[in-house]
Design a protein that fits this description.
The chain has 99 residues and is mainly beta. The chain has strands at 6-15, 21-29, 32-39, 48-57, 59-68, 78-86.
Length: 99
């Protein structure tokens, strides 16, 4: 968050109870990144691709897109685990000194 006293300390996505395997990270510009991962729900071949596009500007936004790479319909369940807490406002880099 911007201009708030909270920070995200942990951000995880689970697909069918498992963390996706990271394949690559694509950076389009300094304020956005796309994380590409795969989840093999049945067998060793990856059939489900996940794309997480994160944008940081006036706040933070993350779009999740799941793509079925197989030719048959697929059911899946996603879980988003987000942890955060208050930001330490006494951090020396944020305080100003008076002379």
């Amino acid at each position: 968050m911007v201009r708030d006293a909270r920070v995200i300390s942990d951000w995880q996505i689970r697909v069918d109870g498992h963390r996706p395997h990271h394949l690559t990270v694509l950076s389009q510009d300094p304020y956005s990144t796309t994380f590409v991962s795969c989840s093999p729900p049945h067998g060793a071949q990856s059939e489900l691709l996940s794309e997480r596009r994160r944008y940081v500007g006036e706040g933070m936004r993350e779009d999740l897109r799941l793509r079925n790479l197989s030719t048959r319909p697929m059911r899946t369940r996603t879980r988003h685990e987000i942890a955060g807490g208050p930001h330490d406002t006494t951090d020396s880099s944020l305080s100003r000194r008076t002379r």
